[in-house]
Write a structure and sequence with these properties.
Glutaredoxin; about 650 residues; 7-stranded mixed sheet; 4 domains; 26 helices; alpha/beta
């Protein structure tokens, strides 16, 4: 039930650029573009500081603190009402807050140097309608390592680690979009607007642009029509940009092709600095100047360098990478050759898993259909539920869990998040593990789609949802239409239970008296009465979730008053087979104590407690289940 978008998956750089790192501090003090540094898919060990525990009086009464954000991602904003940068930071906070509810994100403010009396005289910052801790003596500020002179915004993951943030925001407004983008990346939130990068199998067109080389020669979008191109946005003082330029120097010497345009574009217009860099690196190709913000905006430049775009012969962006390193260089090699349409080497990781981006180079159509499955967004589901470090969940939501070169909770390689090509086709697919395919797809699917985690999983029924051939019918859809398709699929609109007649909760009472007694005292038992109180008792659309077995065999209304309300069979399935004479008790009714709360029980509950009728329910499932739990919790207990 996670919310999807065209740029939902986090780029690897987010983990590198954030975390209150020294590089970001340098950026904020005027260093210019941020050096993303080398990376191989974002694999780094956990080194972020933990959010310190704190508590204090709340602006609206009572007390609270870090406990208010435990177990969920959060944005913590420390500010003083008189800060010069407060409104600029608040614009970022308000934008992120608009998506907080649907993404299970909490916000918490800390008013530094302000007591309750002073706070009540001052207006609350616009859009700060979340809890605010008062910190008159700067006790909390010292714990957070911030001051009252500048506004600080900290991104915190569900385990309480600070994964990003900034302190202070410059006056010219150039950093706001960048910082919001990076915060959203660190928190796995959707990004507003369409990024200039492939999304959901769609390659965006290259924008119109015009740049001039150091010799005054013009290069424009028109001049590269029909040819493949590489646009490298770099900073002349960035050592990792130098590293990537040296890579391309060797690449172009080996891979010279008359239909390939290589255009390194300096994001800095300091002519002498760029010229000195060209001389020092002995670059044999033309180097260009961006010539101002308009060109950088056209390329959707986010201030992190090196930033490389690969453009195919049709004038569309086939790939985009921020940073450098062996993995990025191998991927660039394949994508450039793919854009040219020449023979392509298979540069897969020889000792580990490579990730879906490598597969996409040669299998673009198959990759596009994969992006339209919930498999592609499986890791974000864990993030939204605060389970992205849960070893019980990660094996089926990542690639190569705890195998050599696969996903581990210590390194958390971003390029191995989600259910990808190598989950179904083996490490490197048939290129590296041809024996993997011999077992067939069904055992692979059923290794994760177990009875505990998947409700009524039928391989033949579910295969079309992930089949490349079946999904090719959607290849003509726009990004917006593809997004709508994903959201429909995410709702999992299908029959949840085995077909049978409904018998009513009173029949269950003969064997389950204690459970029936507890249910009869619950709001579920009186669900139809709540409709009557609102004058909606005859509303069929409402009855579907306020009765049992609505318009199903033996269900409401044909089954009479015994089916009024949300009864046992709403959660455990129709009981006709279970109570039939001589019937087997095992397997004829759904025993929920054997099921995963989030994967199965949440799906059952979510069929009515959806975003439209009960916003945020899926993120409060555990607490709400505790109020209605009944029956055996011991898995060794006899079946009902």
């Amino acid at each position: 039930m996670h919310k999807l978008s065209t740029t939902h998956r986090r780029p690897p750089r987010a983990r590198l650029c954030l975390g209150l790192a020294a590089a970001l501090a340098a950026l904020l003090t005027g260093a210019g573009t941020l050096d993303a540094g080398p990376h191989d898919g974002g694999s780094v060990a956990r080194s972020e500081p933990a959010l310190p525990r704190f508590v204090g009086p709340l602006l609206d009464g009572g007390s609270g603190g870090s406990d208010l954000v435990v177990g969920r991602r959060a944005l913590v904003v420390a500010y003083s009402p008189g800060n010069d940068d407060l409104e600029r930071a608040a614009r970022i906070v308000r934008s992120i807050a608009a998506d907080a509810g649907a993404a299970n994100l909490r916000l918490l403010g800390v008013a530094v140097g302000v007591d309750r009396v002073a706070a009540q005289r001052l207006p609350r910052p616009a859009g700060f309608d979340f809890p605010i801790v008062l910190d008159p003596d700067l006790v909390v500020a010292r714990k957070l390592g911030v001051t009252g002179g500048e506004t600080s915004v900290l991104a915190v993951d569900a385990e309480g680690y600070i994964v990003g943030g900034f302190t202070g925001l410059e006056d010219d407004g150039t950093l706001e979009a960048y910082l919001e983008d990076e915060l959203r990346g660190a928190l796995y939130l959707r990004r507003p607007g369409a990024a200039l990068a492939p999304a959901l199998g769609v390659r965006p067109p290259v924008p119109e642009f015009s740049v001039r080389s150091l010799d005054g020669e013009e290069l424009s979008s028109a001049s590269i029509e029909g040819r493949a191109a590489v646009i490298l946005l770099f900073n002349p003082t960035c050592p990792h940009c130098h590293e990537l330029l040296q890579f391309f120097k060797g690449f172009l010497a080996r891979e010279a092709h008359p239909e390939l345009v290589f255009a390194p574009v300096s994001v800095s217009d300091r002519l002498y600095v760029v010229e000195q860099m060209v001389a020092d690196l002995e670059l044999p190709f033309p180097v260009y100047l961006a010539g101002g913000k308009e060109t950088l905006d056209a390329f959707d430049f986010k201030l992190a360098v090196p930033d490389t775009l690969v453009i195919d012969r049709a004038g569309r962006v086939a790939g985009r990478h921020v940073g450098t390193g062996p993995r990025v260089e191998a991927l660039l090699t394949m994508q450039i050759r793919g854009a040219l349409g020449v023979a392509n080497p298979i540069l897969l990781d020889r000792k580990g898993y490579s990730g879906e981006a490598f597969c996409a180079v040669c299998h673009a159509d198959a990759h596009g259909t994969w992006s339209l499955t919930t498999h592609a967004h499986a890791f974000e589901t864990l993030v939204e539920h605060g389970a992205d470090r849960n070893p019980e969940c990660l094996p089926c939501h990542t690639v190569g869990w705890n195998e050599a070169g696969g996903y581990t909770p210590d390194t958390r390689p971003a390029h191995l998040e989600g259910v990808q090509c190598e989950n179904c086709h083996g490490r490197g697919g048939p290129h590296q593990s041809p024996e993997f395919a011999q077992q067939g797809l069904q055992p692979v699917c059923e290794s994760c789609h177990t009875p505990e985690h998947s409700l009524r999983f039928e391989f033949a029924q579910r295969l079309p949802l992930v089949s490349h051939a079946a999904n090719l019918q959607f290849s003509g859809l726009s990004v917006e239409e593809r997004l709508a398709l994903l959201e429909r699929r995410d709702r999992r609109e299908r029959t949840l239970f085995e077909p049978a007649d409904h018998v009513g909760s009173s029949v269950c009472a003969s064997c389950h008296a204690d459970e029936h007694a507890r249910w009869s005292r619950s709001p579920h038992a009186r669900a139809l009465e709540t409709l009557a109180a609102r004058g909606e008792a005859a509303n069929a659309e409402c009855q579907a979730c306020h009765t049992t077995g609505f318009e199903q065999p033996g269900g409401w209304p044909a089954g009479g008053d015994a089916l009024a309300g949300v009864g046992c069979e709403s959660c455990h399935g129709p009981g006709g087979r279970h109570v039939a004479e001589g019937a087997s008790r095992q397997g004829t009714i759904l025993r929920l104590t054997e099921k995963c709360d989030s994967c199965v029980i949440g799906q059952i509950c979510g069929s009515c407690h959806d975003e439209a009728n009960d916003p945020g329910f899926e993120f409060e499932l555990d607490a709400k289940l505790d109020r209605i739990r009944h029956g055996f919790r011991d898995r060794e207990a006899p079946a009902p």
